[in-house]
């Protein structure tokens, strides 16, 4: 007897985005070997391409392949980027697990989808019957992206604990898709090498930062503080290339001269920076963007971290990181913390941060958790796939009735042979 | 000499590149001694549930002979007329039903997550593949359209760029006339053409520069939307809607403009670009303007901007503040179009290819 492997259609980015780092691509690379060892997986992206040993297929073939050799599960990685609009579309075509790397409670952000009938679909799907409804005529997307995307997820994985709380408190009441909806905090994990980083004795206080140059990353609050310590620090700034010009401008405005800019975000670059760094800034003020996976890497590296006392960082213990309140006294708090570190000769390992990382961001534990989640829910996925197929069939029949209602009896005589020729009656 | 029918669906009350292309092709075929005529059926864009029914009518209509004259070839241009069946069929693809293809999932498409839409999309894909695939010769009006056909339907199409509709009638004029400088926008007025970005960009541009908009509305509510933008940005005295204009007026409008704004989203081809080039005017396009980018090269014959008002405003400012640069880009544009053969004999190439099924 052979054990047939569970078949998964995995959707993600197949590279970094045109102008920024892609968490879903990074995560796909990280979990690739584990996935292919345990499951039968086809990777789908926008195009047919082989990248770093992973063969991606154009997502348009997913449904075709599903018909000939059905998948047990569709797994969607979502980020706040227009380049992943194809995944946003596919979610509404076949429900599956959705991994929210960002969770967008707004109708701003990625390309909107107008005329979304998610709530009507959910009501119909709940009663396993497609009841025809008036088509919508929306000019602008009114509902937040997160509502629609959550509505179609059989299980929602959320990369930040704060997103998970939002899901429980807000989303669950809004969506009515009857799938015994589950939401799970599922953070990204740091690779093993980060756990082996040792502290370095530096002449200057080496401060690292992986945020962008815009307000939400708080650089306007801490750069004036760094100016004060200019001759005692070395500032390492890793960012997406599109922010480089702005970042240089800000550094110059704040008279910061000891700095290095790394204009491409990657795990390896951040690893190299952490080898040198004493203190790391992971500041952010955003309701729907996460700063994974670099925060997790810094915690695993046992670095002293300054973050904000806000949303995505709520779950980090006070003992593992300095949590600065966003607002009028924010700069003073940065000043006070950096000042303390300036005078320390040898900055050791932040043991609490590392231990916290070990319990939450352990690759083996996380990946095995995902594996078990999939195996345990296999029957449920199969049931929903069958229901969805039946639901689509009913919708198709409804469409056929509508199409034919646009011609009279004479017209029907003319078009019937054509409908037969193209199997449009199916 | 062959009996040829050129097929094109028409949307009543609107006029765009498709109508120009069909009319010019029929004229050029007749000029070469063929007996050509056009067949048009109205295409109703609403409701979408009627799309396949409309396609079925094209399919059902016998195209083999008319009035005792055998039809040697049909040339189909876009959805749904390429569903027509004939002994010999050429396709010169203007575009497919884009809302079911590349526009699906964004704000320009009326297809959404209604499962009936998905069923409709699937039927359209599959049957498009069949009816385009059965043609004896398949071509497309741009690389962009050809690439889409390959990407979605796995069908190869030769690229045949449509030559300029008014041939060598275009002329160049000053970039400023009677102390008036204006940016010209030409085309159907609808959301996807993004005229609103040109309007918004005016607030970043010197007040001496105006915007003239040629074309008729192609979407309900679009003029109200643009008027609202004009009021919101307080540029009432700088924007002029000219509606549809005569050939002569259009030539003059191109000739006297400072530059031409043409930044639609993922355009199939865009006659406007070539008309501007033939009038020695640089074109301001966007980096997601599709077929337009097959011609506009940033800093060479125009500017390729980000699709936002700041970036477009910056491009207009460059052209407005440095007329020598504007002139240079305009000259480059003209040279490009001349060297590429768009001004003269390229109809021969187009027609020779489209007639391959009956010449071979």
Topology:
The complex is a heterodimer of chains A (426) and B (360).
Chain A: E1 7-11, H1 23-38, E2 40-45, E3 49-51, E4 54-58, H2 61-68, E5 73-78, H3 85-91, E6 96-100, H4 118-126, H5 145-151, E7 153-158, H6 161-174, E8 182-185, H7 192-195, E9 205-209, H8 219-228, E10 233-238, H9 244-253, E11 259-262, H10 267-276, E12 279-282, H11 294-300, E13 304-308, E14 322-324, H12 330-342, H13 351-360, H14 363-376, H15 378-404, H16 409-421
Helix pairs in contact in A: 8-12, 11-13
Chain B: E1 3-10, H1 17-31, E2 35-42, H2 51-60, E3 65-66, E4 69-70, E5 73-78, E6 89-95, H3 115-133, E7 137-140, H4 143-153, E8 158-159, E9 181-186, H5 195-201, E10 209-214, H6 222-232, E11 239-243, H7 247-255, E12 259-261, H8 271-278, E13 283-286, E14 302-305, H9 309-321, H10 323-339, H11 346-354, H12 356-359
Parallel strand pairs in B: 1-2, 1-5, 5-6, 6-7, 7-8, 9-10, 9-12, 10-11, 12-13, 13-14
Antiparallel strand pairs in B: 3-4
Helix pairs in contact in B: 5-6, 5-9, 8-10, 9-10
Morphology of chain A:
elongated
Q: Which CATH first-tier class of the largest domain in chain A would you pick?
A: Alpha Beta
Mean pLDDT of chain A: 89
* CATH architecture label name of the largest domain in chain B: 3-Layer(aba) Sandwich
So what's the oligomer here? heterodimer
Number of domains of chain B: 2
Q: Beta fraction of the residues of chain A?
A: 15-25%
**Tally of individual domains of chain A:** 2
Biggest sheet record of chain B: 6 strands, parallel
Quote the distance from N terminus to C terminus of chain B: 14 Å
**C-alpha Rg of chain A (nearest Å):** 25 Å
């Amino acid at each position: 007897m052979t054990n047939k492997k569970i078949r998964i259609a995995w959707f993600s980015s197949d590279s970094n985005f045109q102008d920024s780092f892609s968490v879903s691509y990074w995560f796909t690379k990280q979990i690739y070997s584990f996935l292919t060892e345990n499951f039968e997986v086809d990777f789908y992206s926008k195009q047919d391409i082989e990248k770093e040993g992973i063969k991606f297929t154009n997502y348009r073939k997913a449904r075709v392949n599903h018909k000939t050799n059905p998948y047990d599960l569709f797994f969607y990685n979502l980020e706040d980027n227009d380049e992943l609009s194809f995944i946003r579309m596919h979610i509404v075509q076949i429900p599956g697990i959705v991994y929210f790397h960002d969770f967008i409670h707004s109708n701003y952000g990625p390309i909107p989808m107008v005329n979304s009938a998610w709530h009507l679909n959910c009501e119909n799907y709940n009663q396993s019957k497609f009841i025809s409804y008036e088509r919508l005529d929306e000019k602008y997307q009114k509902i937040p992206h997160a509502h629609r995307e959550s509505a179609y997820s059989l299980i929602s994985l959320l990369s930040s604990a704060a997103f998970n709380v939002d899901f429980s408190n807000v989303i669950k009441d809004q969506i009515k898709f009857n799938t015994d909806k589950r939401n799970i905090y599922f953070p990204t994990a740091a690779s093993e090498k980060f756990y082996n980083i040792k502290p370095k004795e530096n002449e200057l206080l080496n401060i690292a930062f992986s945020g962008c140059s815009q307000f939400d990353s708080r650089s306007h609050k801490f750069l004036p503080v760094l100016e004060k310590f200019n001759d005692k620090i070395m500032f390492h700034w890793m960012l997406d290339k599109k922010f480089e010009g702005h970042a240089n401008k800000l550094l110059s405005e704040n008279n910061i001269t000891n700095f290095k800019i790394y204009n491409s975000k990657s795990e390896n670059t951040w690893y190299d920076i952490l080898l040198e760094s004493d203190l790391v800034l992971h500041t952010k003020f955003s309701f729907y963007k996460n700063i994974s996976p670099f925060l997790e890497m810094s915690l695993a590296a046992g670095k002293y971290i300054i973050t904000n006392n806000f949303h995505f960082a709520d779950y980090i213990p006070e003992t593992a990181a300095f949590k600065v309140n966003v607002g009028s006294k924010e700069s003073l708090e940065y000043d006070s913390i950096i000042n303390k570190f300036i005078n320390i000769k040898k900055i050791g390992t932040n043991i609490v941060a590392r231990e916290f990382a070990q319990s939450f961001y352990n690759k083996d534990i996380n990946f095995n958790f995902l594996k078990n989640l999939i195996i345990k829910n296999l029957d449920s996925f199969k049931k929903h796939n069958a229901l969805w197929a039946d639901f689509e069939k009913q919708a198709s029949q409804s469409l056929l009735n509508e199409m034919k209602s646009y011609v009279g009896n004479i017209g029907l005589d003319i078009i019937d042979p054509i409908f037969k020729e193209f199997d449009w009656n199916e | 000499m062959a009996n040829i029918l050129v097929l094109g669906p028409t949307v009543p009350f609107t006029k765009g590149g498709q109508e120009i292309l069909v009319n010019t092709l029929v004229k050029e075929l007749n000029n070469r001694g063929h007996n050509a005529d056009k067949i048009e059926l109205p295409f109703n864009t609403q409701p979408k549930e009627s799309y396949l029914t409309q396609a079925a009518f094209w399919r059902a209509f016998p195209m083999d002979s008319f009035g005792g004259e055998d039809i040697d070839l049909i040339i189909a241009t876009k959805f749904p007329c390429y569903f027509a069946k004939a002994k010999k069929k050429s396709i010169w693809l203007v575009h497919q039903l884009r809302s079911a293809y590349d526009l699906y999932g964004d704000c320009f498409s009326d297809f959404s997550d209604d499962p009936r839409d998905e069923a409709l999309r699937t039927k359209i894909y599959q049957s498009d593949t069949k009816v385009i695939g059965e043609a004896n010769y398949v071509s497309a009006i741009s690389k962009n359209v050809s690439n889409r056909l390959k990407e979605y339907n796995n069908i190869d199409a030769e690229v045949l760029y449509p030559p300029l509709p008014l041939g060598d009638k275009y002329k160049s004029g000053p970039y400023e006339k009677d102390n008036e400088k204006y940016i010209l926008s030409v085309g159907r007025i609808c959301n996807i053409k993004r005229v609103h970005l040109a309007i918004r960009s005016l607030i970043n541009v010197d007040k001496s520069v105006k915007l003239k908009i040629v074309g008729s509305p192609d979407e309900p509510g679009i003029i109200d939307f643009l008027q609202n933008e004009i009021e919101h940005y307080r540029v009432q005295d700088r924007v002029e809607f000219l509606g549809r204009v005569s050939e002569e007026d259009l030539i003059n409008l191109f000739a006297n403009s400072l530059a031409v704004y043409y930044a639609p989203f993922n355009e199939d081809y865009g006659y406007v670009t070539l008309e501007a080039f033939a009038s020695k005017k640089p074109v301001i396009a966007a980096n997601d303007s599709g077929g337009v980018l097959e011609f506009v090269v940033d800093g060479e014959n125009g500017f390729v901007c980000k699709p936002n008002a700041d970036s477009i405003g910056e491009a207009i400012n460059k052209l407005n503040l440095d007329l020598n640069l504007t002139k240079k880009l305009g000259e480059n544009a003209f040279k490009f179009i001349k060297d590429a053969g768009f001004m003269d004999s390229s109809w021969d190439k187009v027609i020779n290819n489209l007639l391959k099924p009956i010449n071979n």
